[in-house]
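About this split. The held-out portion is used to measure sequence recovery: a designer receives only the structure tokens and must propose an amino acid at every position. Recovery is the fraction of positions where the proposal matches the reference. Here is one held-out target exactly as it appears in the evaluation file.
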């Protein structure tokens, strides 16, 4: 009597406690396999350490990895609560292509009707991006920036071949700088969106478990 192989696990990585709380608050089950929500800590070095350590253990050695949380939108016209699905992540060490971007977009539109979903390169930074830095990064072709996604995905693929993706929620943008008190409302909007993304992540994960031709 043959036994089915265990479903591949999913590692969802975020940096902040508030991001982890939002994801757990939105978890209603429905993943295709075991799911771990990892709080890495803030910044690329912390993300690299945490993800590398988790993937070194036997439970998550073959896990698909999805980086998520909040980000800075770089393009004029972006608003808090918009979604960014990365086609690739970038940092000074290189570029990591993402898997299943189109599926994530489709499922996010289904899960969050009316929300704008942007696709394009997501760039890494070692600090919070503000002011002129947004324009400088936009000029490279990136549409959003955060401190952990690029390090998370690069660490994941260096630990072994696996599907990776990054989905971020815009918390501030060129016309909605987080440093202004009026953008607190934008933070609340971004939190509510992040609380609703897990069904899309689970569909992405399930698609990876289908037999490959």
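Reference sequence for scoring:
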């Amino acid at each position: 009597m043959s036994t089915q192989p265990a479903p591949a696990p999913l590692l969802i990585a975020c940096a902040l406690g508030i991001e982890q709380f939002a994801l757990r608050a939105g978890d209603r089950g429905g993943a295709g396999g075991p799911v771990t929500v990892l709080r890495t800590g803030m910044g690329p070095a912390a993300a690299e350490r945490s993800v590398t350590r988790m993937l070194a253990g036997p439970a998550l050695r073959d896990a698909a990895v999805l980086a998520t949380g909040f980000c800075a939108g770089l393009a004029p016209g972006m608003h808090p609560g918009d979604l960014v699905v990365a086609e690739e992540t970038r940092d000074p060490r290189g570029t990591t292509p993402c898997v299943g971007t189109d599926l994530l977009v489709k499922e996010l539109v289904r899960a969050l009707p009316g929300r704008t979903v942007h696709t394009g390169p997501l760039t890494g930074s070692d600090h919070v991006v503000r002011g002129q830095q947004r324009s400088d990064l936009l000029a490279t072709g990136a549409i959003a920036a955060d401190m952990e996604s690029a390090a998370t995905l690069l660490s994941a693929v260096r630990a072994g071949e696996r599907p990776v993706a990054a989905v971020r929620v815009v918390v501030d943008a060129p016309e909605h700088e987080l440093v202004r008190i009026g953008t607190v409302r934008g933070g609340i909007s971004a939190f509510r969106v992040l609380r609703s993304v897990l069904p899309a992540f689970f569909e992405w994960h399930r698609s990876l478990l289908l037999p490959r031709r």
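Annotator remark: DSSP finds seven helices and eight strands in the chain.
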